[in-house]
Amino acid sequence: MDPEAARTARESLELVFQMSNILDLGLDRHTLSVLIALCDHGLNPEALAAVVKEFRKEPPLTSSTPTTPSDKRKASEYRRAMKCYCHKADIKIVTNLRTGGFT
Fold first, then answer.
1. Is the Cβ–Cβ distance between 31 and 16 less than 8 Å?
2. Fewer CB within a 10 Å sphere, N or C end of the chain?
3. Are residues 49 and 34 in the same domain?
């Protein structure tokens, strides 16, 4: 990435972060940058918002990183389930946009 593009990206992320703080969304810069990158890669923003809301419903993990094989398996299953959830939500939103089926 050229220096000008990198500077613009940093400024944009800082602006989004400030807006996030004003709206009290509780999203850090890293999370925001991941969400922006996913949108840049074509994921539906509404589907991503649904995933963020779903993550917030989950109770916090007791450890920041899985340590036992069971924890690692659960974390892997959870990531797979969230990918599936995001994909299904994206398909549902696209279908509703095409058919005007939002209620």
1. no
2. C
3. no
Given a contact cutoff of 8 angstroms between Cβ atoms, the answer to whether 81 and 58 are in contact is: no
Q: Which two tokens stand for residue 42?
A: 């074509």
Tens of pLDDT, residue by residue over 31-76, are: 999 999 888 888 899 988 888 888 887 666 555 555 566 767 777 7
The pTM of the whole model exceeds 0.70: no
Are the CB atoms for 31 and 56 separated by under 8 Å?
no
Helix (H, G, I), strand (E, B) or coil at 40: helix
Dmax (CA) for the chain in angstroms is 47
On whether both 48 and 91 belong to a single domain, the answer is yes
SS3 (DSSP) at 83: helix
Question: What Å distances lie between residue 5 and 12, 21, 35, 40, 61, CA to CA?
Answer: 10, 24, 18, 15, 37
